[in-house]
Each structure stands twice: as structure tokens, then as C-alpha cells.
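INPUT
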Amino acid sequence: MTVTSNHYLRRSKNLLMNALSVACAVLVISPLGLILFYLVRQGVTALNWDFFTHLPAPVGQTGGGMGNAITGTLKLLALASVVGVPVGILGGAYLSEYGGDRINDWIRFWADVLNGVPSIVWGMVAYALAVVPFKTFSAYSGGLALGFIMIPLVLRTTEEVLVLVPRSYREAALALGLPQWKMIARIVLPTALKGIITGVLLAMGRVAGETAPLLFTAFGNSHWSHSLAEPIAALPLQIFAYAISPYDDWHRQAWAGALVLILLVFALSAGVRLLAGERKKP
Amino acid sequence: MSPRPDPTAVLQRSSRWSDRSFRLLCLAGASTIFVLLLLVAYQLYHGSHLARAQFGWKFLVGSTWDPVDEVYGALPFIYGTFVSSAIALLIAVPLSVGTAIYLTELAPVRLRQPLVSVIEMLAAVPSVIWGLWGIFVLVPFLRVSVYPVLQHRLGFLPLFQGPIYGIGLLTGGIIVAIMILPIVTSVSREVLRSVPDLQREAAYGLGATRWEVTRIAVLSYARRGLMGAAVLGLGRALGETMAVTMVIGNSSDIAKSLFAPGYTLASVIANEFTEATTDMYLSALFELGLVLLGLTIIINIIAQIMIRAISSKETRRVA
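OUTPUT
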């Protein structure tokens, strides 16, 4: 084989592999385009004011909405944050301010492993903890399941932003005679507040669309819930129920619900980008 | 004259007390990770004691799942979970690594950040929405345009024989593949980015083409980390629930054909948990959860060890 033919072979192999990797990128990104296209096309037709304010219509009637599911999802997110956010932030503060290298490595490692535990398993835990003892499905149990999922997420992101707070801030605060806990609570946490909120929004975005852990905790409800101790409707649950139903009108509603859900999730991550962008500027 | 109390000492004592309690509070927050781990293991272990006492290890290899006669075996679900996850990995890993190579080695710098944001958006799409799209868009498309061709060409293999429903193991695997693409891509990208530029420069200096640089200097260096990314993807694939439940067909028969409906551990829990009328039924479902938990924890431990190995190698090199 001559040098030149070898050269051409290598060049063409190079071009081929480059083209392949571009093709991979296109293939990986295309599902997003596809899903947004269908969500908008199918979802917009069923979206109207009633969709946000009304209860689901009974079988056979057209119209109705997912008002209860939308407020239900917001309530569940609030409950999940009550469980997940304080614990996550305190844990993150421990990693960044107190813990030794060894124990921190362990906590990070197991937090990442916990992150990989399927969400439906957290639903089973919340079922055993909060549904069985009270003998009823409830918003509380759904919030608990989602909160469990949030804890490792918030913990990891909080730690990441706290270590970015300059050491000199801490030293200045201690030099002024502030006890360490006040230094953390009054100087470190507020300085990193935007980053912490970013992490919390990210975690909320992640659990907002979770369906599996709610199936046997929040359970769903076709009426307005008056108490958090009752079963509560949630947008992902409603989408699931409608998607597997045999009625065309419900399918339309499922698409509309999915459009609203994805807008909610993207709004949360847009908030993230906004905060993160602001943080980078100075 | 009695000694006056030293005000700073009082201050110190009170701040020492509050310092200590704040530290404990933070420690409690951090140890929640271990508490959660023990809690989830205990709850599933405890919840499944009836089924474990009744069936023992045979639960894992029993192929009958019959709630009416109270005979429970997990094999069809373990089989379905592994088959759909294997399909997902076969599709997702090459695509993800290819994309990661494009993002770190080829893409114009201006394009990289927007592409990464798009992949993050892809990761944010909830499972139930993929399921909805799967039912109404992907399944009809595969049933009409893809599977008949596949059967025509590869029908001599038992994998591609039998009736085509659209829903089934292969469809489940494809939807899981789409869902794990973002995480495998972003971890692979991190791994490739951690390859020192010196490696690349050395290969370029020897006159290698861009692909040769990627293959010799980058991929061989990053192999362990990329495998870690794949294992992490496997962990996610095993636990994927809603989208799979909506397109896999939910049948507890073990079929040879990939076109046949199947069932996974997570989807049987999702479908049957609220229908479990007897204690034994519920207990068997808890045991499926325990199997799923055990699998995902082991897989995730392996993945984290592999991913960490490459990043710590990197920091050592820098230090």
C-alpha cells in the first residue's frame, strides 16, 4: 500500500466518523423537537380558560378541565419542598462547612446512589409510612414521597454553591466575633441564596412531573380537595389516567395537560437559567 | 470584692452551645441520606415479609404471577426489565457517546452551550409525557412503518417473529432509550471533557486525523468513565416506570419475540399496587420493589465508582 492511498483511507475514515457523530447529535436532539411539536399541535386545541378553572368532565361529556389537578400539583410541590428543602440545605451546609473529607465523600457518594433509586420505590416507602397508618391516600403522603426524592438533589446543589462563597467572607465574619453558626446562617447562606434557590427550583422541576410515586400516595381525585389529608389530584396522574382511557376527548385533554405540565417544568428551569445567568454576570 | 462575671465568657458559653446545636442540626440534615437509605431498605424488606416467608428464593425464579391463586413469581418482570433495559442501552449508548464526541471534539464552540441546554431540556421532559407521546405517536409509527420492515428483513430470527401489536418489549426499550439519552450523554461529555488536552495535542502532533485523535487519545483514555456512564444509564433504565408502563403491553408471559408484550418490575408495581386486595398480593409487590431497589442500588454503586475513578485520576494528575 502506498503512502497516498493510506492517507486517503485515513482522511475518508475521519470524514465518515465525523459525519456519524454529527448524525448521533441530530438523532439525540430530534426527540425534543418531535415531542414539542406534538404537544403544541395536539394540546393547544383543548386549551382554554375552562381547562385551568374547571373540574374534569364526567365520561361522555365534552369540555371540563384540570383545574383541580393543576392546583393539586402546586400543593404537592409545596409539601415536597417543606420536606426536602430544609433538610437538603442543612445537609449541604454540613458538607461545605463542617464535615471532614472522608465523611463528605461518603455522603456525596450515597446521595448520588440515592438519586438513582427509582421514584416508584419512594412511593412505596411513603405508602408504608403515611398511607397505611392513616388508612387513607393523602396529599401529605404524596408530598412526602416527592420530598424524599428532593433531599439528595437539594443537598448536592446546595453544597456546590456554598463552597463557592469566598473564604474571606467567612474569615471576616469570624474575625468580627460572630459565632460560627451565625456566620453560616447570616453570611454564607444569604450570599449563596440565588444558587440555593436555583438548586431548589431544579429539584422542583424534577419532581413536578413525577407520576409513579403519586399513584398510591396522592392517588388522584376528580374533585377539588378540601384537606391535605384527602386524596389529591395531580397533573401527571391525570395525564396518565386520560392517556390510557379509551375516550378521544380525554386524549385531547391529556395532551393539553401534558402541554401545561411541560410549560410548568420549563418555567422552573427558565427560572434556574435566569438566576444562574444573573449570578455569572458580576 | 467578688470577681465580676466576665461578659465575654458568658457570650462564649452561649455561642458554644448554639454552635454545637447548629452543627448537630446540619449533621442531622446530612445523615438523612443514610437514614433514607436504611428507611427504604427496611420498609421494603418489612413490607415483603409475607411473600418472602411463603416463597423464599423461588420467588425470583418463579414464572407464574397469578393473584387469583396467590402464586407469585418475579421472573417475567425481571426478564422484561432486563430485555427492555438491554435494548435501551444498545440504542442509547452509541448515540450518546457519539453526541458527546461531537460536543467535546467537533462542534463549533459557539454551538456547544446551546446544544447542552437542549439536552438538559430533553432530560426535563417528564416520563408520563414520553408515555403519552409513545402511545399516540411512536407506537402507531413503529407498528406501520418500522416493525413490518424489520420482520421482513430479520424475520428468520426468533426475536423478530410473531404478531406485531406496536406495543411490546422493543417499543418499551426504544422509549427507555430516548429517556436515558440525556443522562448518558451528559455524563459521557463530562468524562470526555476530563481527558487532558495534552493527550489530544500529543496525538495531533504525531499527525493523527481528528478521528484518530478521538479514538487513540480520547476514547481509550476515557473508556472506564464511558462505561460508568453506560452503567448509570442502565440504572435509570431499570427503574423507568411510567413511559414503559404505557407502551410495553403489560403481559406477564415470557415471550421470545421482541414484538410481544412484556412487563417490567416497575410497571407491574405501578399497575397493580392499588389493586392488591390481599396482604400476600401487596407483600409480593413489595418484594418486587425490594428486587428493583437491590438491582438499582448495586448498579448505581458500580456506576458511581467507575465515574469517580476517572475524575479523581484527573484531579491527581492536575495536583
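end of record. The two ends of chain B are 61 Å apart (CA to CA).
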